[in-house]
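Usage

Read records sequentially. Each one opens with the input sequence:
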Amino acid sequence: MAAARALWRPGLPVPRGCGRLWAQPGRAAAAVAPPPPSGASPGARSPFDRRLKRKQKNWAALRPRPAECEYLRDEVGSGVADRVLDIPRTFPLALDLGSGRGYIARHLNQEVIEKLVQVDIAENVFKSTSESEIPTVSVVADEECLPFKENTFDLVVSSLSLHWVNDLPKAFREIHQVLKPDGVFIGAMFGGDTLYELRCSLQLAELEREGGFSPHVSPFVAVSDLGHLLSRAGFNTLTVDTDEIQVNYPGLFEVMEDLQEMYGNSDGSVPATFQIFYMIGWKFHESQAKPAQRGSATVSLGDLAKIDKLLHQK
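and closes with the structure output:
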């Protein structure tokens, strides 16, 4: 595994009001098998109860000192914003899908985005939205069913929201649909190696004590599937890259004792690694560069090796 960038929050324990990233054993059955949402693709699984997720986000949004819980969201939101800034254009109208308190918008300005529509399933997040110089409109809507017309937005961004969507292929298709031709989608979501310390510790502890184990962490998408899903949704010129962020906590609850015993740092802190997948996909337009036809190359790769050898001889 590649070395992870570290985030350190001295004196900041894991807040009890920040919401859980794992399921409580006694509630696993109820949380894993709700009925699929209306309009979901045939055969789509529904591991997330969207009504419960809305209640959790609404409750968390009203907790005091929200900044204590959002440093990871701010870090990833900054990563999405950096990728927007890499594109040398101004976007007249953009959509932030699952915006929360505005973790992407706070890193951008009106020279990049002239107007921004922020969408979230929880209305309470808009009561404490971060300040931004970009004119914004807030819309309460489910990310699984976008209430916008086709070819509306020049840019769609999303940071750490799509992980909770039940039907990811459908969500990608809807994002593609609301984009204008030559529009771009830039998003970030949790990857499959997220919280591997927690998962390994829970599995080994449960095997030792119960003789078997059950899943306690939400399912994650694999990077090998992400590009395929984007392509099937109609996106082209795809880019998918990964990042790892290791958050070092000063301490965890007693239930996390096994995690500390196995992976604890020498200074007593406990690491939790979050793998982030960043993705970029474009909606087709005639003006976009097209790949050359197969067999149209005028120089072979073998000739390139000869050129390199000649250069070194000089």
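Summary fields computed downstream for this record:
- The two ends are 41 Å apart (CA to CA).
- Residues 8-40, 254-260 have pLDDT under 50 and may be disordered.
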